[in-house]
Amino acid sequence: MQTVHISVMTGKLDGLRATSTNTRTNPYCIKQNASPDPNNICTKCYSHTMLSSYRKNMQPALQRNSDALSTRVLPTVELPRVMDSVFRFDAHGELINETHLRNLVAICEYNPRTVFALWTKRNDIVSKYFRTRAKPANMMLIYSNPKISHIMAKPPKFFDRTFNNVLEHEYVERQNCTGQQCKDCLLCYTPGNGVTTIVEKVKNY
């Protein structure tokens, strides 16, 4: 019996599906969202805003995912079977712990024909986990740079790309993730395309 809830996305992610977790109960997310640093992108978190207001009703389903993915290693019978060509991990939320990452890796291995993409700032969890394990070929790891207006070109070890936020008037010529939907671009989801740096203008929520 599948344990992990899959969501159909809207807005920029319209047409894609994802597994997400509850940003509002993740200690890392709570701490970063409350950061006094105005250049920390987490202080402008769309997920915190949505889940505390007009999408508050999503929290129970996301919390079930948080609990399922972070508290135990899921047996194969509880992993979702994914038929999509591309799939998003944590459209809401962030890696909670190593068990969470281990379960996401298992989902990738269980669905080898799907390309999965995970955006995360938790290089500490990623580097520790993959130091002794191979990353699945169908898993794209994208380092979500927490610092606004500071483009990080080189991904950390084990990551495929960096994702950077800049102010609207900054680095306009380098903004390659602005004004389009993911399904029409797939830059982040395409292995081996040579692109290692993604740049988007900061959105206000």
Specify the biggest β-sheet: 7 strands, mixed
What coarse outline follows from CA principal-axis ratios?
globular
Low-pLDDT segments: none
Mean pLDDT: 94
What would you say this structure looks like, in words?
The longest helix has 13 residues, at 59-71. The chain has helices spanning 27-33, 46-51, 59-71, 98-110, 123-130, and strands at 7-8, 17-19, 86-89, 115-120, 139-144, 161-166, 197-201. Helix content is 23%, strand content 16%. The chain is globular and about 50 Å long. With 205 residues, the protein is of the alpha/beta class. Strands 1-2-3-4-5-6-7 form a 7-stranded mixed sheet.
Give a quick set of tags describing it.
205 residues, alpha/beta, 7-stranded mixed β-sheet, 7 strands, 16% strand, globular
Layout of helices and strands, plus pairs?
Blueprint: E1 7-8, E2 17-19, H1 27-33, H2 46-51, H3 59-71, E3 86-89, H4 98-110, E4 115-120, H5 123-130, E5 139-144, E6 161-166, E7 197-201
Helix pairs in contact: 3-4
Give a quick rundown of the structure:
This protein is an alpha/beta fold and 205 residues long. The protein has five helices and seven strands. The longest helix is centred in the N-terminal third of the chain and has 13 residues, at 59-71.
